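Re: the 158-residue chain
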Amino acid sequence: MSSQQAFSDAVATITARISGKDLDPGLQAFLNESFPPGGEAFDDLAELCRQGIDEGWLCDHEQGGIKFGRIIKAGPDTHGFSVDVVEMDDIRGPYHGHPNGEIDMIIPESGDAVFDGQSQGWLVYEAESEHYPTVSGGKAIVLYLLPDGAIDFSCTAP
């Protein structure tokens, strides 16, 4: 099996468990309990992210010091979620909104990297939330799941 197929399968295992759930603090707790850092599913997917970056099929674009790429469009294989991966090193990304919410898998790679103040694990943004995605304290990989692939870069920053 190719690393890309293994990646897709690993994501689908997670999205199958969260399909139809509200994106709220309860989902964040569920993900951190069901797929915790140090657990097989989290660690395998983190390693597949690293492998994909090394092989060049993940984060194959770069702009403003951020490597990124949408690897899977929203569809039935991922239960309606799109899958994007970014690699950020002590940087703030572009302000954007989440019409349907966003689920982030945070994978610190150096130092004491955190994403939006959160260390390794899962972070869930509710529908209609907005932010500057920010990695501080080092380098991190962030895999994010977007219901229906929805993201809005036209939001006005505060």
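The mean pLDDT is 96.
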